[in-house]
């Protein structure tokens, strides 16, 4: 039997080699309409050493409309000495399957963990090739966010028993191994759940020098999708299903499900396959960049051999003076992934510095350059905490949040041209809490200056009092005036309800950038004067104590862009403290 098995493999291999020789004209197709249960075929993938190896494929049945209308999945059983050890392997998605020497589909789905047999789902080749030629989104418009790639496909009634899996089992896309180079395990672990939501699994690997042969991809080879390159690198991998001219078809399922994409494509080199009863995966190195991934669709991924797309250059400096460590890397530009990738790289850069210590305070400065617009400025301080996370994590979170706001804007598609970040570590925990506050006058007149005295308690230091002078605006109405003494976070949370222009009301990306550049800083002490009265929110402007007649005129001329809130911030003053401020206090004075 073993001799007959290997004889059939050899015959099929000869047919496949003949097919590969005419790749430019496209493979011969074995259509879904001719696939029947009980048929046998042969698949190809790499288990180690860049050697494409065959495995036996038996057709179990067809699951019609499993992914969606007219989106079928072919259920197959895999077998070979390597499959017996590892089962269905992460990175195997896209492995081509041939029946009678003709391309029938790509191994793309698998059951959950601990299955006793290697049962997989195969995407019919017609559906994978259909990812080519999709329409680009209209210029200037932000494409609708697609669903993530980790879709679970429930089996139709009765199929679970037929293939020998338990009730409630489902097919899911075979995970794509993500190779990290230069990243600490703790940093990868912190973001692993976010990566898993996109169907990616972190694995060992690295990068190797480019070779002239890297672009000679053929079915069964591995290809990498480059997310980060440079001093830090990160790339996902899939198997090549087919190549037609300069077009390369991979995965057989979505990588991220983003639709039209611009991701650098590189050659992938399989070092070995890590067999595990829980989840086997290919260990991969990435080689030279050979083109661009342009389509990331429901039934597969497509790339083109040729020039790669541009990436965003990032310069990260960690430390101060001569001991500062410089990182230079590039990240792919994508509204959903770029914020995460920059956050991961920032956290890695900070934590991998030899001067890094838990329990110290960090100062972040930097800029995000946007084509055709002013740069977004970053400037904030972060004190350590007792939370069970690295003390540098808030830095990464702030960077990620700013990027998310830029990409989520509803006005235009931004193009990031460069990122510059500097992180300095300051000795000890630098923070102080607001203990109490009072005014040097209980009654004031408009135009006068009142001094607010704030009692501060620094971390492991002597208490002190800070004076904050603030002028009473001329438009202040007679009556009670509330004084809020606070940190930046408290005032920001209050302004979710009033009165600073909300993100959705700004008139364009320029105004959004201006708002981002006006955000409050953790190392400043804020005093705000609040009074009951109408405030008009109009685009990025706040108009306190505006007459109702003007509110009516603006509201009628600009429907949906104006909102009235019945509390006004009359004035705000802040002072630099050179340490992170926490807490808040309220007091009242009377305007005569």
Description:
This protein has 592 residues and is an alpha+beta fold. The protein folds into 3 domains: 1-309, no CATH class; 312-426, Ubiquitin-like (UB roll), CATH 3.10.20; 431-591, no CATH class. It is elongated. It contains 10 helices and 32 strands. The chain has a 6-stranded antiparallel beta barrel. A 6-stranded antiparallel beta barrel has the order 12-13-14-17-16-15. Helix 6 packs antiparallel against helix 7. Mean pLDDT is 83; it is low at 1-22, 135-150 and 497-504.
Architecture blueprint of SSEs:
Layout: H1 2-21, E1 40-46, E2 52-68, E3 71-79, H2 81-86, E4 95-99, E5 102-110, E6 119-124, H3 125-129, E7 153-154, H4 159-163, E8 170-173, E9 176-181, H5 185-196, E10 200-203, E11 205-207, E12 222-230, E13 233-244, E14 247-250, E15 259-274, E16 281-297, E17 300-305, E18 312-318, E19 325-331, H6 338-351, E20 361-370, E21 376-382, H7 393-408, E22 416-426, E23 431-439, E24 443-444, E25 449-458, E26 464-471, E27 479-486, H8 488-494, H9 509-517, E28 524-538, E29 541-544, H10 548-557, E30 562-576, E31 580-582, E32 584-591
Parallel strand pairs: 9-10, 11-16, 18-22, 23-31, 24-32
Antiparallel strand pairs: 1-2, 1-4, 2-3, 3-6, 4-5, 5-6, 5-8, 7-8, 9-13, 12-13, 12-15, 12-19, 13-14, 14-17, 15-16, 16-17, 18-19, 20-21, 20-22, 23-25, 25-26, 27-28, 27-32, 28-29, 28-30
Please give a handful of descriptors for the protein shown.
alpha+beta, Ubiquitin-like (UB roll), 6-stranded antiparallel beta barrel, 592 residues, 6-stranded antiparallel barrel, 18% helix, elongated
């Amino acid at each position: 039997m073993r001799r007959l098995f290997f004889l059939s493999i050899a015959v099929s291999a000869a047919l496949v080699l003949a097919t590969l020789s005419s790749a430019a004209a496209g493979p011969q197709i074995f259509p879904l309409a001719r696939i029947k249960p009980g048929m046998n075929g042969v698949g190809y993938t790499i288990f180690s050493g860049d050697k494409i190896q065959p495995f036996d494929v038996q057709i179990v049945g067809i699951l019609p409309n499993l992914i969606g209308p007219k989106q079928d999945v072919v259920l197959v059983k895999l077998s070979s000495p390597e499959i017996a050890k590892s089962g269905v392997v992460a990175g195997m998605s896209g492995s081509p399957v041939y029946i009678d020497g003709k391309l029938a589909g790509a191994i793309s789905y698998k059951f959950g963990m601990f299955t006793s047999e290697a049962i997989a789902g195969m995407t019919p080749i017609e559906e994978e090739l259909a990812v080519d030629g999709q329409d680009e989104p209209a210029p200037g418009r932000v494409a609708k966010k697609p669903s993530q790639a980790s879709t679970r496909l429930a089996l139709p009634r009765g199929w679970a028993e037929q293939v020998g899996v338990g009730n409630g089992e489902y097919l899911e896309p075979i995970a794509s191994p993500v190779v990290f180079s230069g990243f600490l395990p703790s940093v990868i672990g912190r973001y692993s759940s976010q990566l898993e939501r996109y169907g990616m699994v972190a694995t060992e690997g690295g990068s190797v020098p480019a070779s002239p042969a890297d672009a000679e991809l053929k079915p069964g080879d591995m290809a990498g999708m480059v997310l980060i390159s440079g001093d830090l690198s990160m790339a996902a991998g899939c198997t090549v299903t087919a190549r037609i001219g300069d077009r390369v078809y991979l995965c057989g399922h979505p990588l991220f499900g983003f639709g039209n994409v611009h991701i650098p494509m590189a050659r992938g080199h399989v070092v070995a396959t890590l067999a595990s009863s829980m989840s086997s995966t290919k260990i991969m190195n990435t080689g030279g960049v050979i083109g661009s991934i342009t389509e990331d669709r429901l039934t597969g991924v497509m790339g083109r051999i040729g020039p790669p797309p541009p990436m965003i250059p990032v310069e990260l400096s960690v430390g101060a003076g001569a001991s500062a460590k410089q990182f230079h890397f590039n990240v792919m530009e994508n509204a959903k992934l770029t914020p995460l990738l920059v956050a991961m790289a920032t956290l890695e850069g900070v934590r991998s510095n030899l001067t890094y210590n838990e329990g110290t305070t960090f100062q972040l400065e930097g800029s995000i350059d946007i084509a055709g617009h002013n740069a977004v400025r970053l400037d904030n301080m972060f004190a350590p905490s007792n939370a069970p996370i690295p003390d540098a994590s808030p830095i990464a979170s702030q960077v990620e949040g700013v990027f998310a706001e830029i990409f989520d804007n509803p006005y235009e598609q931004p193009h990031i041209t460069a990122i510059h970040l500097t992180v300095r570590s300051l000795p000890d925990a630098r923070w102080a809490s607001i203990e109490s506050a009072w005014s040097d006058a209980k009654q004031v007149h408009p135009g006068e200056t009142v001094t607010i005295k704030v009692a501060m308690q620094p971390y492991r230091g002597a208490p002190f009092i800070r004076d904050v002078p603030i002028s009473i605006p001329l438009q202040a109405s007679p009556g009670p005036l509330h004084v809020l003494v606070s940190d930046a976070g408290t005032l920001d949370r209050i302004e979710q309800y009033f009165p600073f222009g909300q993100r959705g009301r700004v008139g364009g990306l320029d105004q959004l950038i201006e708002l981002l550049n006006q955000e409050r800083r953790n190392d400043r002490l804020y005093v705000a004067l609040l009074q009951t009265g109408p405030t008009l929110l109009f685009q990025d402007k706040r108009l306190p104590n505006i007459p109702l007649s003007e509110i009516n005129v603006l509201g009628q001329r600009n429907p949906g862009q104006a909102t009235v809130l019945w509390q006004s911030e009359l004035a705000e003053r802040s002072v630099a403290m050179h340490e992170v401020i926490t807490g808040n206090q309220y007091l009242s004075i009377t305007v005569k």
